[in-house]
């Protein structure tokens, strides 16, 4: 339910590449161009793209004249696949503190929180980056290589 900032940044970077894929699948953008289009720090995006490249979700080359693009169709990459590269699954959030639910009597919000977490996991597992290819890109595509 609560996800790390790096996961959010990775999804933002991937969403930009998904938009690009819909318009020009072979076009690449630099880490700086991706970062600027999503208002993210360039060094963080560069690190994220390296991890995504090693995992086979993006392809490209770093450095001057380099760029990145999706390695596969956006419809074949789920949000969860990207998120798990940057964070580990955490135990259920309990307002009584860690380790309460499951070891003690469940807290008053246990069932509600468990249901929300289940729905969030279903959303992340079913939602692909194809969700970002509908309509016009959020930021005009410039600098396409």
From TrEMBL:
Give the superkingdom in one word.
Answer: Bacteria
MF terms in GO: DNA-binding transcription factor activity
Per the UniProt record, one Pfam family is: Rrf2
The record's Gene Ontology cellular component field reads: cytosol
Q: Where is the signal peptide?
A: none
User: Mind telling me what this protein is named?
Assistant: HTH-type transcriptional regulator IscR
Q: Which organism is it from?
A: Novipirellula artificiosorum
Q: Which gene encodes it?
A: iscR
């Amino acid at each position: 339910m609560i996800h790390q900032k790096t996961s959010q940044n990775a999804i933002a970077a991937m969403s930009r590449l998904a938009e690009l894929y819909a318009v020009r699948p072979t076009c690449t953008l630099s880490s700086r161009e991706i970062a600027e289009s999503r208002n993210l720090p360039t060094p963080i995006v560069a690190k994220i793209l390296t991890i995504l490249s090693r995992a086979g979700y993006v392809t490209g080359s770093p450095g001057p004249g380099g760029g990145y693009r999706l390695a596969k169709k956006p419809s074949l990459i789920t949000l969860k696949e990207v998120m798990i590269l940057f964070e580990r699954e955490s135990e259920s959030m309990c307002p009584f503190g860690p380790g309460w639910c499951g070891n003690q009597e469940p807290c008053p919000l246990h069932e509600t929180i468990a249901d929300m977490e289940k729905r969030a996991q279903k959303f992340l597992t079913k939602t692909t980056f194809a969700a970002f290819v509908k309509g016009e890109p959020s930021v005009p595509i410039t600098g396409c290589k």
